[in-house]
Amino acid sequence: MTHPKIVILEWKNEPDDKTLHQLIEFQKTILKEFEEVIQITQGYCSLMLFHKNNVQNIEDYKTKLHHLYTSQSMKYPKKGELWQIPVCYEEDYAPDLKTLANDLNLNPDTLVAKHVSARYQVCFIGFLPGFLYLSGLSKVLECRRKERPIPNVPQGSVAIGGRQTGIYPMDSPGGWHIIGKTPYPFFEPLNKKPCFAKAGDSVQFTSISKSEYLQLEGHRHNGTLKIKPL
Fold first, then answer.
1. Which of 2, 134, 153, 205 has the fewest CB atoms lying closer than 10 Å?
2. CA 34, CA 169: separation in Å to the nearest integer?
3. For the chain, which domains are there?
């Protein structure tokens, strides 16, 4: 399906840090050079450009974009923020942890240790507002998604599906394996920045107890939870 106000640019590369930085930098260049582009949505290896008006001559426009891409100096952008995300991996918040660990021939403690030991890259935000698509999951933790998605995954659930891990920013149906829960909010629509993280940032999970989780959750409810990068 095509739309006269939308142009999709795709990279043939495999998703990696270099491609991510190219996407981030090219977005900035496009928004600077083309006033008619009002919004850009990023994927793993694609950019979707939204325009004020219909794109009249698509071939001419593609040529301009290609020239702009090949002529710009592709420097790595400024290093993104590092966010440490507290996660409670205890049974009350991790309904799929034991089953997934068994399927992967791991014990639950080893699975958690693998999950918190990695540093993940925020590739883009999608599926739901504030849902971070994160790369960097250990191959040992890669798994099939659930055969049957469940109708309601609670907000804050930390899950693994395929080659990815992520955090559900709101209650939602989902087919990933829930291995923990964070008290941090990932989408607050009334804030100037509804989601504190962005593409190019990094995320590292840290394990907390149930009592620590409840304490942080209390701070969130009374408005005193401060989320700051490291």
1. 2
2. 32
3. 6-71 (3.30.1360.40), 82-221 (2.40.100.10)
